[in-house]
């Protein structure tokens, strides 16, 4: 019986092995529990709710009525919803495109600045980044005030038209221009600083080599810098899309917590349906559609982050 | 060693410096170009910063200088009246206290949980590790707006709406994935050999961890805590939906309802906004260097 002879030697090793195997699970278990309980479970509950009729009566009884896909049918047949969906997509496209274009330009500019000016611009970006969103919305509300707002005054003084007592929110298109401005202004610092950090990693010899070969600045950017930065571009593109598609605070607070239906985006519409007119089932169905759109974007983001981030353990 | 990306970034910055220097040296025309670029940089800084300047300037102006058709660019005479007004408003002090309470409790719970998970992910290979990491990254992308309805109904069932524990629990879950991901980077940057050396010298595994790894990861814990603080302090919609009575709300909810409840009194509103933003900006400036490199470290091989 060779096994019995070898047993005393093997046993401690065998006994020790399960320990390091269980320890990491114990370490991550509190986090998993919290995430499962407060994020994953509600996400499942959201889907379940979207299949129920859940109004005020059901809220009091804590019990919904199963209606299958009726909520989705109602929403997809609703002209207002289609309008809101198109508006949300256009709004997101405008915000993301403007954010990326301006951020790329400012990041490239940062490379060319002399040191003191670069510190000034970086500090300005960090200040804007650090300011809480609700605070910035209050500021812009004041700046766009129809009576005493500084923007109307400046535009009138610059002879860009008569903006005396001009209310920007009477016309939803103008109102949304203001909201896009606020969102882009708030998003530029993070995206710019991220892109700038990426630009610093682009070897300057590569650009010099391209220049020697006769490339102009645009071609050097297009064929050398941009391809190297592609992973970072993809990450900020995904993040910006996710953030801008779910924008709530800027619109809701800017319009004094009473946005008219002309200002509904997906997030606002879902909120209104559930907490405004207590149709939690309908609101949940809209939220599920919102999440579905973002899941696609998230998929790309996760894949990209896993490729970029070094996730190998330092010790096995 | 202190943070993911910081040292690398120093090197990168230095490299950009020499590159910029070389370019100027080669071409004299570049010098006039430099002035142009710098002027553009100053202009962009001014445009970006103007809203924040305008908030602070308005906050220090007396009422009659705020509501003028021709704006006064500099607050003179200078007054603290708006700040006094804001602070003496009903529920301001209660809501500051609520915010501090929520953030404090949230930080204590989430830091402990995140640190354990970060050690687990950075120091051990185990089955399901990749799945856990994917969950950590993916879950950060779940839009909070979409979860409000089930969260509200869940807490309603438990009788925890209009109470702080519900908000604290939600905030813990919101900041946790980011904290785990960031701390993982800090822990991974501490060479495991240091722990092993301590264990050779007679430390237990736990002792080595407490005496070696924990102190070294201190800056990481501080940075992570500050980011958690900022996120929770700034959060609006969860607190707005879950906390209904004014005495139970947090500072951002108080601030957002300022205009609706009192009409646009811009002076006190801007003073209150300044006070709300101040701690965040101060903390942010301390730790922003940790953030800049974190996302992109190692993404581009130079």
Overview of the molecule:
- The complex is a heterodimer of chains A (316) and B (302).
- Chain A is mainly alpha-helical.
- Chain A has helices spanning 2-16, 18-49, 56-61, 70-76, 79-112, 115-130, 133-143, 150-157, 172-199, 204-212, 217-245, 249-254, 266-276, 280-308, and strands spanning 52-53, 65-66.
- Chain A has two domains: 2-49; 80-308, MetI-like fold (Orthogonal Bundle).
- Chain A is 76% helix and 1% strand.
- In chain A, strands 1-2 form a two-stranded antiparallel sheet.
- Chain A starts with a helix and ends in an 8-residue tail after the last helix.
- Chain B has 302 residues and is mostly helical.
- Chain B has two domains: 6-80, no CATH class; 85-294, Orthogonal Bundle (MetI-like fold).
- Chain B contains 15 helices and no strands.
- Chain B has helices spanning 6-26, 29-59, 63-66, 81-88, 92-123, 129-139, 144-157, 164-188, 192-200, 205-216, 218-234, 237-242, 251-256, 258-262, 266-294.
- The radius of gyration of chain B is 24 Å and the shape is globular.
- The two termini of chain B are 20 Å apart.
- Chains A and B meet through α2, α5, α6, α7 and α9 of A and α1, α2, α5, α6 and α7 of B.
Q: Which structural class do the helices and strands of chain B define?
A: mainly alpha
- The residue ranges of chain A in which pLDDT falls below 50 over 5 or more consecutive positions are 1-18, 310-316
Largest sheet of chain B: none
Under CATH at level 1, the class of the largest domain in chain A stands as Mainly Alpha
- What would the average pLDDT of chain B be, to the nearest integer? 83
What CATH calls the topology of the largest domain in chain B is MetI-like fold
Principal-axes geometry of chain A comes out as globular
Mind telling me which CATH architecture of the largest domain in chain A this is? Orthogonal Bundle
Spatial separation of the terminal alpha carbons of chain B: 20 Å
> How many E strands of chain A?
2
């Amino acid at each position: 019986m060779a096994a019995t002879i070898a047993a005393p030697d093997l046993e401690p090793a065998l006994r020790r092995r399960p320990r390091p195997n269980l320890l990491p699970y114990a370490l991550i278990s509190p986090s998993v529990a919290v995430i499962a309980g407060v994020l994953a479970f509600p996400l499942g509950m959201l889907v379940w709710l979207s299949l129920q009729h859940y109004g005020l009566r059901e809220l009091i009884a804590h019990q919904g009525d199963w209606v299958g896909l009726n909520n989705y049918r109602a929403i997809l047949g609703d002209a207002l919803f289609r309008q809101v969906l198109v508006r949300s997509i256009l709004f997101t496209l405008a915000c993301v495109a403007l954010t990326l274009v301006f951020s790329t330009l400012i990041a490239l500019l940062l490379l060319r600045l002399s040191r003191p000016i670069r510190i000034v611009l970086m500090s300005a970006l960090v200040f804007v980044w650090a300011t809480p969103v609700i605070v910035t919305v209050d500021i812009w509300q004041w700046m766009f005030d129809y009576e005493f707002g500084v923007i109307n005054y400046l535009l009138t003084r610059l002879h860009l038209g008569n903006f005396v007592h001009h209310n920007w929110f009477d016309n939803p298109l103008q109102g949304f221009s203001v909201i896009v401005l606020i969102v882009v202004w708030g998003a530029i610092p993070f995206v710019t600083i991220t892109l700038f950090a990426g630009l610093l990693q682009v070897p300057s010899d590569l650009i010099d080599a391209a220049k020697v070969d006769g490339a102009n600045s645009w071609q050097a950017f297009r064929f050398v810098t941009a391809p190297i930065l592609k992973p970072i571009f993809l990450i900020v593109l995904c993040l910006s899309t996710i953030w801008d598609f779910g924008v709530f605070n800027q619109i809701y607070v800017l319009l004094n917590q009473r946005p008219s239906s002309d200002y509904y985006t997906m997030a606002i519409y879902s909120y209104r349906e559930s907490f405004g007119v207590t149709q939690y089932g309908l609101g949940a169905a809209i939220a599920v559609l919102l999440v579905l759109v973002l899941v696609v974007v998230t998929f790309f983001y996760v894949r990209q982050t896993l490729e970029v981030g070094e996730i190998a353990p330092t010790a096995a | 060693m202190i943070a993911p990306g910081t040292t690398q970034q120093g090197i990168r910055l230095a490299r950009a410096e020499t590159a910029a220097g070389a370019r100027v040296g080669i071409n004299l025309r570049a010098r006039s170009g430099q002035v142009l670029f710098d002027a553009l940089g100053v202009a962009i800084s001014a445009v970006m910063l103007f809203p924040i300047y305008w908030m602070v300037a308005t906050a220090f102006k007396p009422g009659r200088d705020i509501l003028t058709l021709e704006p006064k660019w500099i607050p003179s005479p200078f007054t603290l009246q708006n700040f006094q007004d804001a602070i003496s408003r009903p529920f301001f002090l209660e809501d500051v206290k609520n915010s501090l309470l929520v953030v404090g409790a949230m930080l204590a719970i989430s830091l402990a949980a995140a640190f354990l998970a970060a050690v687990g992910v950075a120091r051990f290979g185990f089955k399901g590790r990749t799945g856990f990491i994917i969950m950590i990254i993916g879950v950060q992308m779940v839009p909070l707006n979409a979860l409000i309805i089930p969260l509200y109904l869940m807490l309603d069932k438990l009788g925890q709406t209009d109470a702080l524990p519900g908000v604290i629990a939600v905030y813990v879950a919101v900041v946790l994935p980011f904290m785990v991901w960031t701390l993982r980077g800090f822990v991974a940057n501490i060479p495991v050999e240091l722990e092993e050396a301590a264990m050779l010298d007679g430390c237990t595994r736990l002792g080595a961890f407490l005496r070696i790894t924990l102190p070294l990861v201190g800056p990481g814990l501080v940075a992570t805590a500050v980011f958690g603080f900022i996120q929770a302090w700034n959060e609006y919609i969860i607190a707005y939906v879950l906390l209904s009575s004014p005495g139970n709300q947090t500072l951002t909810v108080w601030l957002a309802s300022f205009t609706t409840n009192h009409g646009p009194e811009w002076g006190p509103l801007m003073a209150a906004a300044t006070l709300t933003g101040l701690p965040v900006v101060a903390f942010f400036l301390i730790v922003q260097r940790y953030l800049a490199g974190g996302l992109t470290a190692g993404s581009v091989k130079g």
